[in-house]
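User: Here's a structure from my thesis project, written as structure tokens. My advisor, Dr. K., wants to see whether a designed sequence matches the one we expressed. Can you design one independently, without my sequence as a hint?
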């Protein structure tokens, strides 16, 4: 069972909302693809299904990323069972590595998202498909994850020694 997530309540609410938004986007993507499959049965197709699926997939999978990190329900594999101080040091080291990774990815994705937004990046097919919303969602997902991992790291450093 997951413990109470760390961090301010408003952050938990925002991240919970982003997870719900990600779920809604995934449902929209599923309905779009289902509609396209049904249309293909009748010899037609929905416009730009592949492009919209790519965009919706990125948005739908990155928005809940920070929430999953906050709830500590991501998949982990422990090769060794450590106890006491050794476990605490391993956990802190792991959180530092995860924070550095997510912060670095968030930083680079934020730069790309800003450039994409500034030029209103789009692809002209039969209709305009804007790419910058997906890039913004991707950056926000990693920014949120970095913040959550930072809260977890601070919580781990503040926690008293336990067995």
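Assistant: Designed independently from the structure alone:
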């Amino acid at each position: 069972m997951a413990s109470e997530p760390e961090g301010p309540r408003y952050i938990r609410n925002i991240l919970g909302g982003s997870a719900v938004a990600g779920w809604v986007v995934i449902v929209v993507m599923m309905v779009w693809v289902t509609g396209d499959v049904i249309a293909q049965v009748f010899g037609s197709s929905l416009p730009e299904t592949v492009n919209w699926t790519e965009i919706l997939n990125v948005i739908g999978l990155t928005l809940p990323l920070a929430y999953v990190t906050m709830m500590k329900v991501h998949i982990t594999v422990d090769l060794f069972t450590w106890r006491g101080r050794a476990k605490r040091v391993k956990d802190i080291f792991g959180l530092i590595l995860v924070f550095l990774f997510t912060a670095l990815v968030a930083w680079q994705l934020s730069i790309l998202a800003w450039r994409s937004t500034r030029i209103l990046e789009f692809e002209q097919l039969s209709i305009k498909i804007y790419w910058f919303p997906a890039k913004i969602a991707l950056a926000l997902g990693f920014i949120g994850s970095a913040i959550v991992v930072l809260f977890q790291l601070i919580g781990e450093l503040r926690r008293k020694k336990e067995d």
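When you compare it with your expressed construct, this may help: The chain has a mean pLDDT of 79.
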